[in-house]
Amino acid sequence: MKDSISENLDSVMQRIAAAAERSGRSASDVRLVAVSKTRTPDEIKSAIEAGALDLGENKVQEITSKYDILRVFTENSTKNRNIKWHMIGHLQRNKVKYIADKVSLIHSVDSLRLADEISRRMDACGGTMDVLLQVNAAGEASKSGVAPGEVTRLVSDIIESCANVRIRGLMTIVPFAEDPDDVRRYFSDVRSLYDAVGREYRCERLDFRWLSMGMTHDFEVAIEEGANMVRVGTGVFGPRVYARDA
Ligand SMILES: *Cc1c(COP(=O)(O)O)cnc(C)c1O
Question: Structure pTM?
Fold first, then answer.
């Protein structure tokens, strides 16, 4: 198991490097978030040992249950294993409190009410949370995210009223397409939006750095269109098996 995870990771890193080069950048310009949802602590440890330091989860409960186990593991390790947790799934306001002190980046902010709650929680613990705004690029009813046309409004609302939130960029999940080339335009739309918003607002509360787009099936196209953070689960850990009661 361990070997296959580290081999998978190597091959994903190589594909990231190649796609980065095609877009005139280098491998170090693109951050990999290894999506560890549904994976056991042992599988995650293998990924950490192989060099994955950014871990993505989409459920609050999985973060809280894995957090302590892996903290003990990394603290007892002799190597530099400074892992960061990323919340990449839909986040309910009443659950923000459970992860506010555990995650380094929340990719899925799509409303002022959610940003407000995050800001209140961070104020209580005296910190600032880095967030990305999730954009529903294709207008899919089944997906969360703010419509592209509403992003600017949400940005200015958050800047105005959420003192303990720092907007670090945008995130999107595009529709599945057999041929990822068919969804390239959504990546390029979000990239244009990212550039435009990053240019328009320059302030303490907004410091664009991350464009999180691309998953196992389409991360190369996403990188070619400008992604500098990709969220890859299956490509690193193999196919997911969902527990019956999950
Ligand atoms: C599960 C998930 C991923 C990773 O999906 P893979 O296809 O396994 O790479 C990326 N982003 C989000 C938001 C996810 O929920």
Answer: 0.96
* Residue 246 belongs to some domain of the structure: no
Residue 129 sits in a domain whose CATH number is 3.20.20.10
Q: Name residue 157's amino acid.
A: D
Q: Verify whether ligand 1 is closer than 6 Å to residue 37 (CB atom).
A: yes
Number of the ligand 1 atom closest to the C-alpha atom of 37: 1
Structural domain of residue 58, as residue ranges? 2-236
Beta strands in 36-137 (DSSP E): 54-57, 84-87, 105-109, 129-135
Give domain status of residue 207, yes or no: yes
Q: How far is the CA of 37 from the centre of ligand 1 (A)?
A: 8
From the list 212, 90, 186, the residue with the least C-alpha distance to 144 is 90
Q: What is the pLDDT along the chain (246 residues), one digit of tens a residue?
A: 447 999 999 999 999 999 999 999 999 999 999 999 999 999 999 999 999 999 999 999 999 999 999 998 888 887 767 899 999 999 999 999 999 999 999 999 999 999 999 999 999 988 999 999 999 999 999 999 999 999 999 999 999 999 999 999 999 999 999 999 999 999 999 999 999 999 998 787 899 999 999 999 999 999 999 999 999 999 999 998 876 554
Atom in ligand 1 nearest the alpha carbon of residue 88:
13
Parallel, antiparallel or unpaired: strands 165-172 and 129-135 = parallel
Report d(CA 152, CA 199) in Å as an integer.
12
Tell me, yes or no, whether 244 lies in a domain.
no
